[in-house]
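Worked example

This section walks through a single chain of length 460. The input is the sequence exactly as stored; nothing has been trimmed or padded.
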Amino acid sequence: MPYDRQQGGKSGHIDLVKNPDVDAFLKNCKYMREPSDEEGKSIAMSYLDVPSIGCLPEKIIASDASTYSKAISDRFPSTQVGYVKVSLVLVDLKEFNSLTEPGSRYVDPFKVAKMHRNANSIAFTLPGSNIRFKDEKTVKDGFRRAIFEQFSSDQTNLTKNGQYSLTDTLLAIHEGSVEIKKCPSCGLKWNHDLIFNKDYLIQECEHCRTNIYITDDLRIHEQVTDYGDCGAAITRFMNVVEHLLVAGVVRMLADDNPRALSNMGFVLDGPLAIFGQPADIHKRLMSMYHSVSEKLLSLNLQPPLVLGLQKDGQVMEHARSLVPFFDEFCRTGGIKKSFYRAVDDCYRGKYISEVSSANFGHETYYGQDFIYRTDSGRIFVVGIPYPFKDKSNITDFAIKKADPQNFGGLLARAFDLIRYFELDLYSNAIVPVALAHRHASISLVPGGKVLDIMTRAGLS
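Given that input, the structure is written out below as tokens.
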């Protein structure tokens, strides 16, 4: 690490350039590459015509989130506070269709403003490095307490009776009981697991007498240190909160108004997966969505449409590399302009990245990825929840999860929704997600600067 204002040496790279070990290392690296002409044509031929049933949800809820963290001052670069903002936007199809008058090309700005008012944002604040929240013994203990308080706060309650907070949803997807095997503060294992339920959200460690919270089961705090950057933990928090908020809305509607839920669509920004320490809850979400679908089917209602749309990442990079081959194949009349393919493990391992297990995403994913090309030539990577309760029999599951037949009408409904809401303003975007991002994003200027000033003033 250089001293402040110290510049790097102009010849510092020479030792690396001349080192034969560096050259040997680079030659032994494999990476995703653009397919050859022969591979590209073969891949394009494996894509299927897109099904369509012309059935759109009456209402769509889109979710997006963003984080912001920065040192509170140049004199204390290791002292940080983190901010997370999650936005949920409701788009009513009737209101969306009425944005332009019949025979007119112009959008009514007042109706657009009304649509923006259907957005709700929830803000969270977390202690970063070198910040002890509410005089807890360590930064990590303060971070754990802050997560619990944020999860249990009134701002995450979806109803006035307070039955659908993030903590309630966490309990619900665990079927009412959460077990923690060791103290997240002192690290010691107990003689018996601590059982958390709606009556026992906080318990005490029998060794160090530190409070243990039900949210410690997410293990987000494990990435927190007293002196290092806590940005990764804050990002994990954001990832979990976004997925749990959407799951909470689905759960609430399944309990109170299943008919309305049947006519709704939910779009999350990113893959249907939970990464890092809290990844274990992905299987809880998978089971919950399956249970909701089964409940609605038993009532002769169609399951809700839940999507994850990826803006970037390996699958999207691969999909973009195929655009020239798709265009060429369309010109030669090989297939229609609109087509798709499930990203099965064999396809992923051959063209995108090595699949190191018998089932890709076994510890993280609760939805299957599909590459979808619309009539207009735009490329989308779409995730749809696995239509199974769990991942038992890994080898069999790895095959079934990518079989389009197992998704019933969900694929057609998903593709119809994306096609309908395609947006020219941004690359491979749809209107609901663009609206959600607008309300969730925190700009560096002026947003970040204002947060910096607020943080310094609050801490002082």
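What to look for: The first strand starts at residue 48 and ends at 49.
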